[in-house]
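[recover] target loaded
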């Protein structure tokens, strides 16, 4: 290795480490979360009382950083990267994109409870009105289609097969066992928490389970792959990077890739349920309604009318109004990331296969990244700058099965299957509509990813 190459790597690490230090206090979800008392009070009112969340509430929740100091530090870091690495350096440009995201995060958190919060959120995470690359449909239209599929009678019957019989302590023990078996070289901390509103939350290398909640085996299946294999896995893979250490933490621009990949793993491992999938899809509608001026109660009532439970309706609504304005028009748009990212990850994998470059697929796990970064990171991997991911789910470690699965899916994508489906539907038309599935408690788990 030449002295120039070594100096480049060392500078990259210095800048990466500095970015990690500067972004650490910029915890978006922690800064905009609502207390559990708001949920209890709202549901006790029968959904009639607007949550007591306004600019005064957020003003009392002090930020963990000094805005002016952080602004100047981020600005200085961006200037030094351009000077040392050059304005056209591919890895330097990714670093700068992340810095620019964190500069917006500072403004987002200063705008909590104000109209401008929603506008900045759209700059960071997008809008439900956005269209997927190369497609004419909006994310809202796609979300509505998925919500319909996951709310059919068959889906509602299937949801009843997942009773919540595990205490929080039992869930912690089992999930710890599963994840420590997967992450052989790292101890993963799964612990109880009284301080989270959702049933589960993840941050860094820790998963917190709500000590007051009950859990099903289906819940743990989701947590294992979504929170564990993806969110924790990419964090740990990023921490193992020798030079590109910024990959251990993710700015908002990586949200769609991260959340979409996590949802994709739920599907590939058959861990998800129709109820879980519907909640993810419903979030797009909630964002769209709030963006278009619906207030908290109107969005809540919309989901009650769609046969969601009181608690589910509150939680999907609360997710998008946190940080924004409960009277509507300004909201937190991150929740479009799940559907958007799911579609983008699927099509990235399909494109890598059809382009004859399946070796790009495992690069999704090298750390916290946006899909568009992968060609640059792959080149850096070939140059010895970016390390191959240590932790890979089985189907990504040996991706021959993925190749076959997505190959078949790609082949079927161009075929009109409606006639084939109608043939089988005619076979079903005379069957009785008796529900053969035992009546269990509906699966209504909710969780947050606190890894912003």
């Amino acid at each position: 290795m030449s002295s120039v190459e070594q100096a480049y790597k060392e500078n990259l690490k210095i800048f990466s480490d500095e970015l990690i230090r500067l972004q650490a206090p910029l915890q978006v979800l922690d800064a905009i979360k609502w207390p559990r008392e708001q949920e209890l009070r709202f549901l006790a009112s029968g959904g009639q009382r607007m949550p007591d969340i306004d600019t005064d509430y957020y003003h009392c929740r002090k930020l963990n950083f000094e805005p002016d100091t952080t602004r100047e530090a981020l600005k200085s870091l961006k200037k030094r990267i351009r000077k040392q690495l050059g304005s056209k350096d591919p890895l330097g440009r990714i670093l700068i994109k992340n810095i620019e995201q964190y500069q917006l995060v500072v403004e987002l958190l200063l705008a909590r409870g104000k109209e401008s919060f929603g506008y900045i959120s759209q700059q960071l995470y997008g809008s439900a009105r956005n269209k997927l690359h190369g497609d004419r449909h909006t994310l809202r239209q796609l979300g509505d289609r998925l919500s319909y599929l996951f709310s059919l009678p068959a889906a509602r019957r299937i949801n009843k097969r997942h009773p919540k019989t595990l205490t929080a302590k039992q869930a912690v023990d089992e999930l710890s066992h599963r994840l420590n078996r997967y992450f052989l070289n790292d101890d993963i901390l799964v612990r109880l928490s009284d301080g989270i509103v959702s049933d589960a939350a993840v941050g860094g290398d820790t998963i917190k389970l709500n000590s007051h909640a009950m859990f099903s085996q289906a819940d743990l299946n989701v947590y294992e792959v979504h929170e564990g294999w993806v969110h924790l896995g990419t964090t740990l893979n990023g921490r193992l990077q020798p030079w590109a250490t910024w990959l251990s933490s993710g700015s908002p621009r990586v949200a769609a890739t991260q959340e979409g990949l996590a949802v994709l793993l739920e599907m590939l491992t058959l861990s998800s349920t129709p109820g879980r999938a519907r909640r993810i899809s419903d979030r797009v509608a909630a964002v769209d309604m709030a963006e278009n001026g619906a207030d908290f109660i109107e969005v809540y009532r919309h989901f009650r009318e769609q046969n969601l439970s009181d608690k589910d309706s509150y939680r999907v609504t609360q997710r998008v109004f946190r940080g924004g304005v409960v009277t509507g028009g300004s909201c937190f748009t991150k929740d479009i990331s799940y559907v958007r990212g799911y579609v983008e990850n699927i099509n990235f994998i399909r494109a890598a296969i059809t382009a004859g470059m399946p070796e790009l697929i495992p690069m999704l796990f090298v750390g916290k990244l946006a899909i568009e970064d992968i060609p640059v990171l792959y080149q850096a991997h070939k140059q010895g700058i970016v390390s191959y991911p240590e932790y890979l789910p089985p189907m990504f470690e040996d991706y021959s099965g993925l190749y076959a699965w997505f190959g078949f899916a790609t082949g079927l994508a161009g075929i009109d299957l409606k006639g084939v489906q109608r043939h089988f539907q005619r076979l079903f038309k005379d069957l009785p509509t008796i529900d053969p599935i035992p009546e269990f408690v509906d699966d209504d788990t909710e969780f947050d990813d606190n890894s912003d």
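[recover] notes: The beta strands are 166-167, 189-193, 200-203, 206-210, 214-215, 447-449.
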